[in-house]
Design a protein that fits this description.
- By secondary structure, the protein is an alpha+beta fold.
- Helix content is about 40%, strand content about 30%.
- The protein has helices spanning about 1-20, 35-40, 50-65, 135-170, and strands at about 40-45, 75-90, 95-110, 115-130.
- The longest helix has about 35 residues, at about 135-170.
- The radius of gyration is 21 Å and the shape is globular.
- It starts with a helix and ends in a 7-residue tail after the last helix.
Length: about 180
């Protein structure tokens, strides 16, 4: 009985989503060529610093997994700002927990004209603990920085996907 009810509920949800115009953003066919074809035309400019390298690599893997485009139609520039703030402070003023915030201001430009097509700010916060071992604390801090870079990269990818879907959703070919 429960299996039948669960199956009926699943079918009803699928029908209701198809009726409201829901379509997955990254599926091929949701736009004439899919948003991934627009992603493949984005060149991610180098981003200074260790966090910039992590973020750029993450974005390149997400946007252009087949490799950097030779003649990219779009250029993505990102400026990073990071902040580390103490959260848990003991009575002896020793900080035992930090929040690491990474803020990325991005611009998507047309490669030919240089016109800014889309811009925005993506943020991520990752926390880590300070422990007695200096090595463990440094490892936890690096892990928090990498998590924040992954979150920011995913946020930028989603925002670019929405931009391309809204702008080119009814056109046949990117660029």
């Amino acid at each position: 009985m429960r299996k039948v009810f669960g199956l009926a509920l699943g079918v009803a949800a699928a029908l209701s989503l198809s009726g409201c115009g829901f379509k997955p953003l990254y599926a091929v066919g949701t736009t004439p060529e899919g948003v991934s074809n627009y992603f493949s035309q984005v060149f991610v400019e180098p981003i200074p610093g260790r966090q910039g390298v992590h973020l750029r690599n993450q974005l390149m893997d997400a946007l252009t997994p087949a490799g950097t485009p030779g003649a990219a139609a779009y250029r993505l520039t990102i400026k990073l700002e990071d902040v580390k703030e103490g959260l848990a402070i003991q009575e002896n003023t020793q900080i035992t927990r930090y929040n690491y915030s990474l803020i990325a201001k991005y611009e998507l430009r047309d490669s030919v004209s240089g016109e800014v097509l889309d811009h925005g700010t993506a943020r991520a916060i990752a926390a880590y603990n300070v422990v007695d071992s200096q090595f463990a604390t440094q490892s936890a801090e690096r892990d928090a920085q990498e998590r924040a870079a992954r979150e920011v990269g995913e946020d930028v990818r989603l925002r670019l996907g929405l931009y391309f879907e809204n702008r080119f959703g009814s056109e046949a070919n990117p660029g």
